[in-house]
Specification:
Layout (H helix, E strand, L loop, with lengths): L7 H4 L7 H5 L5 H12 L10 H24 L1 H84 E2 L4 E2 L2 H17 L15 H27 L9 H21 L13 H27 L4 H24 L19 H9 L4 H23 L1 H9 L1 H15 L15 H4 L1 H15 L2
Length: 444
């Protein structure tokens, strides 16, 4: 049976202390002290008597202390009984809680055994499965690279060489496409891409060092050499022309495909290797022709030989332009075919590089600008060379005119039926520019 505390009002004796004032929420010690001082002193007194209010406060405190002592003494037994009953009730609650806590602990252990441990085992299995899948992915990617590497070796062996006595320049294109397939895998290094993590495998490193890089370098060198050595003799046969066209087309296609493409937007990409090789070829022909003609102007007996060399260079460039026009832009696996093929053809790319509408026109105009300085130098020096050049002014002019005319004439095997305009009218401007660069600077 619960023990109740004694009623405080039943044992409370009358007291003169105003408890309501002290228990009021608005009670302020400073205000109470001020009112107590004013109640025990005259406001006009000086100094104030603080002994009386202090005694009042001390007496009130003593009265409250006595009252508390009286209450605790009289209510000690009920308080102890109440405390004992509360303690027993707390122990009963704790006993019930212990049983519940023990039950919860048992349930948690069972749950841990059935769920948490199994989840940990499942997590280990998941990690093993992920690593096995990653290993399988790397194995497949590595296997594909090794297979492509072997295919590249076989294709490169098909290229042949002087030692084999047979050369298949079509292997340049096949090797280039295989190299692009390898690039597609090896350059995909982002997470969840096929080539992610391949760069850490020794087999792939060896493949790159011993197969891919050397063969790609060799393909580039052979293609650049074929373009550099491109020449069409005037007496070429149809079979020889087709072979020369095939060699040049294969070389250009290989350089087109192998041009750097990583990190370049499709609309910004251009066949850098091909354009550099063609640029070098045209400028080399122009440089050699300019040097030969410059020497012959100082030694007129060699003029015919030099002009024949210049004509050969020009005809080679003209043949190159015709082959470029007849060659379709290779299909690049990394870049879709442009909507307007004509604007992105090989011919347009090269003409845009030289900022001209015709390679033949560019050849003669560039030579004219280069040769004029040499003629001015000869004229300024004077002497027998300058007099000989002035004396044979008409002969030199006629020889240059004939050279420009012949330079624009490509072998019949490269000429199509659609392109047979009058040579005289076609190159009138180039004839005028070349003759002017020489004759106008000779003087009288």
């Amino acid at each position: 049976m619960a023990t109740t505390l004694p009623d405080a009002q039943a044992i409370e004796e009358p007291s003169y202390i105003d408890y309501e004032t002290f228990l009021s929420p608005n009670f302020a010690p400073a205000s109470f002290a001020n009112s107590l001082v004013l109640a025990t002193n005259n406001p006009d007194d000086s100094p104030l008597d603080l002994a009386t209010p202090l005694s009042r406060v001390l007496f009130d405190a003593q009265e409250i202390d006595s009252h508390i002592d009286l209450l605790t003494t009289r209510s000690a037994v009920p308080l102890l009984q109440y405390t004992q009953s509360q303690t027993q009730a707390s122990k009963a609650i704790v006993a019930q809680l212990d049983a519940q806590i023990a039950s919860l602990n048992d349930s948690y252990k069972q749950l841990e055994k059935e769920v948490i441990d199994k989840h940990a085992e499942a997590e280990e299995i998941r990690q093993v499965a992920l690593r096995l899948w990653e290993t399988l992915r790397l194995g497949r990617a590595m296997g594909r690279c090794l297979q492509l590497g072997r295919q590249l070796q076989v294709q490169f062996s098909e290229l042949g060489g002087p030692s084999t006595g047979k050369t298949d320049y079509g292997a340049l294109v096949r090797c280039s496409y295989t190299i692009l397939s390898l690039r597609e895998v090896l350059d995909s290094r982002a997470p969840r891409e096929e080539g992610h993590g391949l760069d850490k495998l020794n087999a792939i490193k060896n493949l790159q060092d011993t197969v891919i890089v050397p063969i790609e370098r060799r393909i580039t060198e052979v293609s650049e050499r074929l373009i550099r050595e491109f020449a069409i003799p005037s007496s070429i046969t149809f079979a020889q022309s087709e072979e020369a066209r095939s060699r040049l087309t294969s070389a250009m296609t290989a350089l087109y495909l192998l041009s750097p493409s990583m990190g370049i937007q499709p609309d910004k990409w251009s066949p850098k290797l091909l354009l550099q090789a063609l640029d070098t070829y045209v400028r080399s022909a122009l440089q050699g022709s300019t040097a030969s003609l410059s020497r012959s102007l100082g030694q007129l007996p060699t003029l015919d030989k030099s002009l024949a060399e210049v004509v050969a260079h020009c005809q080679n460039i003209a043949s190159l332009e015709l082959i470029l026009e007849a060659t379709e832009t290779p299909a690049h696996p990394f870049f879709p075919a442009p909507a307007k093929k004509k604007q992105h053809s090989l011919t347009q790319l090269l003409l845009s590089r030289f900022e001209t509408s015709s390679l033949i026109s560019y050849f003669w105009r560039s030579m004219a600008s280069n040769i004029s300085a040499r003629v001015q130098e000869i004229a300024s020096r004077g002497g027998i060379v300058a007099r000989t050049l002035r004396t044979n002014k008409n002969v030199v002019g006629d020889a240059i005119r004939q050279a420009v005319v012949k330079g624009g004439q490509t072998p019949n095997v490269f000429s199509s039926g659609k392109k047979k305009p009058s040579v005289e009218t076609t190159w009138d401007r180039e004839i005028a520019v070349m003759m002017g660069s020489v004759l106008n600077n000779i003087g009288r």
